[in-house]
Each structure stands twice: as C-alpha cells, then as structure tokens.
Design goal:
132 residues, six-stranded antiparallel beta sheet, 40% strand
C-alpha cells in the first residue's frame, strides 16, 4: 500500500520530485511500523565518480523516517540524525530504503533506517523527531 502525503509536504524536493531517481519516491507500507521504497539513484545525486553523495544519502534516510511517521499519522520535525556509511552506493543500481519506528516518549519519536544495495547494507541511520 502506498503512503498518502500530507498537503504540507507536497513541495518536498527530496521525495516529491525526481531528484534521486527518474520518478518521485513511492514509499510503501511494510507493516504498521515500517515503510520501504525502491529507487535507482541517478547522476543528479553523484558525489565521487559513480557513487551517491553522502549528504544526499542522509537526506534520503531523513525522508524515509519522516514517511514512516506519516504512516503512523504523526507530523514531526527532525531533532537529530546520525548516519553511518558502510559501503558506497553505486549509481544506476537499485537500492532499497527501509525505515522503522522504534519508540515514542511524549513528543519525541525514535526511528531507524537502512539503505540496501545488492544485498548489502550500505548505510544506516537513527533519528529523533519532535511533534511539529
């Protein structure tokens, strides 16, 4: 099932426009606390030759975790985000972006995400969001 995007997020350059791939990112619901998307990174996101730029990888994690919150009907903003890079993400080869809700306490929500390419975790992230 595809996620519906709130009206106040329709202009997002990261997920609503063809920035990372030839089409906008289409996040799907895995279960009530997890979402995923499959995209093929294109030259627009190139950093070093043939690989995705690190700051854009971080932006992709942030977007995935935010959409995971949308699935829970939570509207929040990023408070902190820590990204770990395990291996380069190659351009032109499909990646899977997964995000999951971990916990909530009052108005603070903890989420995790990972990006997989060719069966390997290339990057992982953990973030905290606060209700907006």
């Amino acid at each position: 099932m595809s996620l519906s995007i709130p009206n106040d997020h329709q202009q997002c350059r990261v997920c609503q426009h063809a920035f990372f791939s030839e089409q906008p990112i289409n996040f799907q619901v895995s279960n009530d606390r997890e979402i995923y998307a499959e995209i093929v990174p294109i030259e627009k996101v190139e950093g070093y030759d043939g690989v995705m730029q690190g700051g854009l990888i971080t932006a992709l994690h942030d977007s995935a975790m935010l959409h995971c919150l949308y699935n829970l009907e939570i509207h929040a903003m990023t408070v902190s985000l820590c990204t770990r890079f395990h291996r380069p993400i190659k351009l032109g080869i499909k990646i899977e972006v997964h995000a999951k809700w971990v916990s909530s306490r009052r108005h603070l929500h903890v989420l995790q995400s990972k990006i997989i390419q060719e069966g390997y975790i290339c990057s992982s992230a953990e973030s905290q969001f606060m209700d907006g």
